[in-house]
């Protein structure tokens, strides 16, 4: 009798435990679901916040986006982001590649060679833009590292067929990358194929959404009407970087004008004040270094009190000028290209002169190369 009673009690207890566990599991899954939904909602709201809520209309009817965050812990978060961005991405990737090449060449290490092959296979065949990594950098809010960071738009950028042309290139062109991370202009940013093809480092660049500026890829994107961002000055403009003078390399850069005419794009001249102040740069032997730059070889020497990380006591202000409407011409002539190139050069010079006093550069002139 006691055995039967014990079995019944045991059965009842098992049912109670089962029901309790079932309810707890359902509750846990529901909580997980709510957390995921909340995170997705938060992420979407964060994007909306950066794209719209921080936009202020000034007296000149210009849209000014302020990416500075004065909340508690924001500066520390941005410093940690800078450390990760430069020392974990650039330095680690470069050092690891150097070590593996050394082991492969000097010690004939098969394992090191295998790692290089696997990483390069992923980089050239499978790596693509990572929204997770971009969201991480957006969360770290790297612009908060600097004294100030604003983006001024003289007019809204078109939703399609917009080409944003950035100056000056300087060393890393922070405004080119980080304004893109924060979706200030809603564009795909293009960079040198050489940068993307550097083993290991190219993975980080690709994950950030950067694509190659080679003619084939540029034509493919423009056929689709995608908004793109380019750095016309390229290596030569980086070589010209000086903390004492504003310099851009534009006199012989006309390829992007030809593409804009061929596909009927609107070109938005962009200039970033403060970009040339984030590093100390070596400015001597310019002619020799320009020869190296034309060969796509290392031609810049730079640094800061923090090594590769930039100076923090700099105010960064990027300005996007009014668009230059280019008529669609299937085969633009040399005269067409020259005409719109002159219009563009005049526009970038006027943009610099218009804002230099506002951003404490009234004694400076824009030097064209």
TrEMBL record:
<dbReference type="GO" id="GO:0006071">
    <property type="term" value="P:glycerol metabolic process"/>
</dbReference>
<comment type="pathway">
    <text>Glycerolipid metabolism; triacylglycerol biosynthesis.</text>
</comment>
<keyword id="KW-0012">Acyltransferase</keyword>
<dbReference type="InterPro" id="IPR007130">
    <property type="entry name" value="DAGAT"/>
</dbReference>
<keyword id="KW-0443">Lipid metabolism</keyword>
<protein>
    <recommendedName>
        <fullName>Acyltransferase</fullName>
        <ecNumber>2.3.1.-</ecNumber>
    </recommendedName>
</protein>
<keyword id="KW-0444">Lipid biosynthesis</keyword>
<comment type="similarity">
    <text>Belongs to the diacylglycerol acyltransferase family.</text>
</comment>
<feature type="transmembrane region" description="Helical">
    <location>
        <begin position="79"/>
        <end position="102"/>
    </location>
</feature>
<comment type="pathway">
    <text>Lipid metabolism.</text>
</comment>
<keyword id="KW-0472">Membrane</keyword>
<keyword id="KW-0256">Endoplasmic reticulum</keyword>
<dbReference type="Pfam" id="PF03982">
    <property type="entry name" value="DAGAT"/>
</dbReference>
<keyword id="KW-1133">Transmembrane helix</keyword>
<keyword id="KW-0812">Transmembrane</keyword>
<dbReference type="GO" id="GO:0005789">
    <property type="term" value="C:endoplasmic reticulum membrane"/>
</dbReference>
<keyword id="KW-0808">Transferase</keyword>
<dbReference type="GO" id="GO:0004144">
    <property type="term" value="F:diacylglycerol O-acyltransferase activity"/>
</dbReference>
<dbReference type="GO" id="GO:0019432">
    <property type="term" value="P:triglyceride biosynthetic process"/>
</dbReference>
<keyword id="KW-0319">Glycerol metabolism</keyword>
<feature type="transmembrane region" description="Helical">
    <location>
        <begin position="108"/>
        <end position="127"/>
    </location>
</feature>
